[in-house]
């Protein structure tokens, strides 16, 4: 099923993408990254030993999260508040 900006619901633990000045392509990419990070976080939360066994994957997820956050900070809409 194709998801559109209208279908977007902020994901728990992530910034609401509607507070950022993103093109449609950027919005979709950021949303997909948030969904990926949500899945990774759920996996590692349910499998604490997995962090040790999959350090590379865990480190990649942390780096992707940091890069997403830095990108979004540069796109914050004027007057928008991050909560």
Account of the 3D structure:
The protein has a domain at 34-75. With 83 residues, the chain is mainly α. It starts with 23 loop residues before the first helix and ends in a 10-residue tail after the last helix. The chain has helices spanning 24-46, 48-53, 55-73.
Descriptive labels:
mainly alpha, single chain, 83 residues, 58% helix
List the helices and strands and how they pair.
Blueprint: H1 24-46, H2 48-53, H3 55-73
Helix pairs in contact: 1-3
Oligomer classification: single chain
Strand content: under 5%
Distance between the termini: 30 Å
Radius of gyration equals 14 Å
Question: What's this model, at a glance?
Answer:
With 83 residues, the protein is mostly helical. The chain contains 3 helices and no strands. It has helices at 24-46, 48-53, 55-73.
């Amino acid at each position: 099923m194709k998801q559109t900006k209208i279908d977007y619901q902020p994901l728990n633990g992530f910034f609401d993408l509607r507070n950022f000045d993103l093109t449609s392509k950027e919005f979709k990419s950021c949303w997909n990254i948030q969904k990926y990070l949500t899945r990774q976080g759920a996996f590692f939360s349910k499998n604490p030993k997995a962090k040790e066994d999959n350090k590379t994957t865990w480190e990649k997820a942390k780096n992707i999260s940091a890069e997403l956050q830095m990108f979004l900070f540069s796109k914050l809409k004027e007057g928008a508040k991050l909560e």
